[in-house]
């Protein structure tokens, strides 16, 4: 969008520990996990760049150094990236206040760093400007809003209230974790203490009559916080259901790095991803699975809706279904891990050592 670069800073909150994705996040921040061929955060940065925003501030905390080591000043992505470290947990509001000194513009677009989205970022900024809003929230309409906080709006798009999870929600509009602030609103947030935008800042703004608006759409949206959502989000990127500039023209049933090897008769589908130097044995079957770099999967193994971390080995005829296998783990032949099983890094399981069915 022409001229957008002069309109806003982009701020991405990436300080969380990603505990729901352990053991994948034991040593790696969640936004840096390989997702459809690149660290997850890279897909969001590419969307920000394509929307015309060029200055990005990363609000980091857990393993903060990993982000700067990978992205540097952002020039390889056509961006200027600054880093602000949060030394103690400050909540969403405190994290946003913590980056105020790095801002350059009067309009600030804030992203939750673990959300995979597909909305038109320029359209949200347009809504914010045309409404002369103090804060604009991206609201997504979902089929079942009961698991989320709901945000009803009036006919003019003004936010009426913020509702906690309820079994009888009055609207299908949920908070999608993307906000546009006037800079003065951020600078008015109390400094140096933990504070929640959803529970404290936004309700307080409504109470004093501030202009809080919603930008409502049906765009793609997924919180990537659990293994099941991580796998589904990666698959949706590969298949083109979720948009990413990084994958333009490369959509399909699988995304296989050119340095990986795939044996004869192996089947890869469901938006599966195979990382650098990985080896997939003859007759193996991968469905909606994320295979990190350097993984070896034996002949005839079946891996479905699972994440196999870097350097792990899956033995011949093993079955891995809805599971997470940690970095460098060694799963023996004919083992079975299903239904939410998680294997920690470096653990070795002997051939046939864990099964959920009789050994035939």
From TrEMBL:
InterPro entries (UniProt xref): GMPPB_C, Mannose-1P_guanyltransferase, NTP_transferase_dom, Nucleotide-diphossugar_trans
Entry-linked Pfam families: GMPPB_C, NTP_transferase
Ranges of residues in domain Mannose-1-phosphate guanyltransferase C-terminal: 252-345
Domain Nucleotidyl transferase: residue ranges: 10-237
CDD domains: NTP_transferase
Similarity annotation: Belongs to the transferase hexapeptide repeat family.
Protein name as annotated: GDP-mannose pyrophosphorylase
Native organism: Corynebacterium sphenisci DSM 44792
């Amino acid at each position: 969008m022409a001229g957008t670069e002069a309109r806003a800073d982009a701020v991405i909150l990436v300080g969380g520990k990603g505990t729901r994705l352990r053991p994948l996040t034991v040593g790696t921040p969640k936004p840096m996990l390989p997702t459809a061929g690149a660290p997850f955060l890279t897909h969001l940065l590419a969307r920000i760049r394509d929307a015309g925003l060029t200055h990005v501030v990363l609000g980091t905390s857990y393993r903060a150094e990993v982000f700067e080591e990978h992205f540097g000043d952002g020039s390889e992505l056509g961006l200027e990236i600054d880093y602000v470290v949060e030394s103690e947990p400050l909540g969403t509001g405190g994290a946003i206040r913590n980056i105020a000194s790095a801002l350059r513009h009067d309009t600030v677009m804030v992203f939750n760093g673990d959300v995979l989205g597909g909305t038109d970022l320029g359209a949200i900024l347009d809504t914010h400007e045309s409404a002369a809003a103090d804060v604009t929230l991206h609201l997504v309409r979902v089929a079942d809003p009961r698991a989320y906080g709901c945000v009803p709006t009036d006919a003019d798009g003004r936010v009426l209230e913020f509702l906690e999870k309820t079994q009888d929600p009055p609207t299908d509009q949920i908070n999608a974790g993307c906000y546009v602030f006037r800079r003065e609103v951020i600078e008015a947030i109390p400094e140096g203490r933990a504070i929640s935008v959803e529970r404290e800042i936004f309700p307080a703004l409504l109470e004093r009559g501030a202009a809080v608006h919603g930008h409502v759409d049906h765009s793609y949206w997924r919180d990537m916080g659990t293994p099941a959502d991580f796998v589904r989000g990666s698959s949706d990127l590969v298949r083109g259901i979720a948009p990413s500039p990084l994958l333009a023209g490369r959509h399909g049933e699988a995304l296989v790095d050119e340095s990986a090897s795939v044996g004869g008769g192996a089947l890869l589908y469901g938006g599966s991803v195979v990382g650098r130097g990985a080896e997939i044995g003859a007759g193996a079957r991968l469905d909606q699975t994320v295979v990190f770099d350097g993984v070896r999967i034996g002949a005839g193994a079946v891996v479905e809706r699972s994440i196999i971390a870097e350097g792990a080995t899956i033995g011949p005829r093993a079955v891995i279904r809805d599971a997470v296998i940690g970095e460098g783990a060694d799963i023996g032949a004919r083992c079975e891990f299903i239904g939410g099983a998680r294997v920690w890094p470096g653990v070795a399981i002997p051939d046939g050592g864990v099964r959920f069915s009789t050994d035939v």
